From TrEMBL:
TM helices/strands, residue ranges: 35-59, 71-90, 96-117, 124-142, 148-170, 182-201, 221-242, 249-268, 274-295
Protein name, as recorded: UDP-xylose transporter 3-like
Underlying gene: LOC103708886
Keyword Ribonucleoprotein: no
Sugar phosphate transporter domain: residues covered: 18-291
Source species of the chain: Phoenix dactylifera (Date palm)
């Protein structure tokens, strides 16, 4: 139990550190050096991740475990499409509306898991999520300029992202594969999807050609650094969703948003207001409440499962309880009821 909890904390910490690091690296690459081809860059991230995992497999650091190829292909392509749609959403909407799109992923995921997986979220966990979303909204959402195309793209981005993250958790548990094994098998499909569509999407959003860009040594250094950090980002994403849940991963994502905002204010002297500070504080309160009540909920479920297991063992060992539960322990010499009579009683 302790090792499992330590592994979860390690996965969460790795996800936060790597994601904040790659945001800082990409901020320098896009804002300072003018490399604005986000979708193409993401395809390179996935390609480097696959190559790194292939080397790790060659070194026998993990075991290759093939499973349903159609599930892997569908999952990989869906993941690639969701990334492309999120980038398009940012390109065709204001920053404020894009933040609202990201906020909508949590309630959408909760709704889908409740409807299709019959997962139950307690009232107190729902309340903590509302507090979290309110805080992130206050800190990040500024303007809400609506347009039809941008709204449709945002809806598609939210839906595909939710499905992809739920599938990440479901596939790992259903086929009993690790996050590394799933990432290794799905990476080529994600990379290929974005590698084909990336230059077109980036050209549509930036009016520039990624292949005609001036790749100076400084730009190349930051691209390589971004790709190396992405290995940790992609791995930790699958690791966190596999060990926790898609909702917890989204909560963690909003923590990263708050950390990036705080980092920009403290070290890069980005413009900041009391509204940003208030929003971050409210979001942190929501995240603490969510983490605490999830822990309590998991402990309660573990206690109930232990109690049920103990009750089953006691019923198996107690002859009287076994008799009441329908287990025959009667004297072998006692007369037995006819089979037809038992069938009739059962059917009635």
């Amino acid at each position: 139990m302790g090792e499992s909890r330590l592994g979860t904390v390690g996965a969460l910490s790795l996800s936060v550190v790597s994601s904040v690091s790659i945001v800082i690296c990409n901020k320098a690459l896009i804002s300072t050096l003018g490399f604005t081809f986000a979708t193409t860059l993401t395809s390179w991230h996935l390609l480097v991740t696959f190559c790194s995992l292939h080397v790790a497999l060659w070194m026998k650091l993990f075991e290759h475990k093939p499973f349903d190829p159609r599930a892997v292909m569908g999952f990989g392509i869906l993941n690639g499409i969701s990334i492309g749609l999120l980038n398009l959403s940012l390109g065709f909407n204001s920053v404020g509306f894009y933040q609202m799109t990201k906020l909508a992923i949590i309630p959408c995921t909760v709704l889908l898991e409740t409807l299709f997986f019959r997962k139950r979220f307690s009232r107190i966990i729902q309340l903590s999520l509302i507090i979290l979303l309110f805080g992130v909204g206050v800190a990040t959402v500024t303007d809400l300029q609506l347009n039809v195309l941008g709204s449709v793209l945002s809806l598609l981005a939210v839906f595909t992202t939710c499905i992809a993250q739920i599938m990440t958790n479901t596939i790992q548990k259903r086929f009993k594969v690790s996050s590394t094994q799933l990432l290794y098998q799905s990476c080529p499909y994600q990379a290929l999807t974005l590698f084909i569509t990336g230059p077109f999407l980036d050209g549509l959003l930036t009016n520039q050609n990624v292949f005609a860009f001036n790749y100076t040594p400084q730009v190349l250094v930051f691209i390589v650094l971004s790709c190396l950090i992405s290995v940790s980002v992609n791995f930790s994403t699958f690791l966190v969703i596999g060990k926790t849940s898609p909702v917890t991963y989204q909560v963690l994502g909003h923590l990263k948003t708050c950390l990036v905002l705080a980092f920009g204010y403290v070290l890069l002297h980005d413009p900041f207001s009391w509204r940003n500070i208030l929003g971050i504080l409210i979001a942190v309160v929501g995240m603490i409440l969510y983490s605490y009540f999830c822990l309590v909920d998991n402990q309660q479920k573990a206690t109930e499962a232990s109690a049920q297991l103990l009750q089953v063992k006691e019923s198996e060992s107690d002859p009287l309880l076994s008799a009441e539960n329908g287990t025959s322990i009667a004297d072998p010499g006692a007369p037995k009821a006819p089979v037809w009579s038992l069938k009739k009683d059962f059917e009635a």
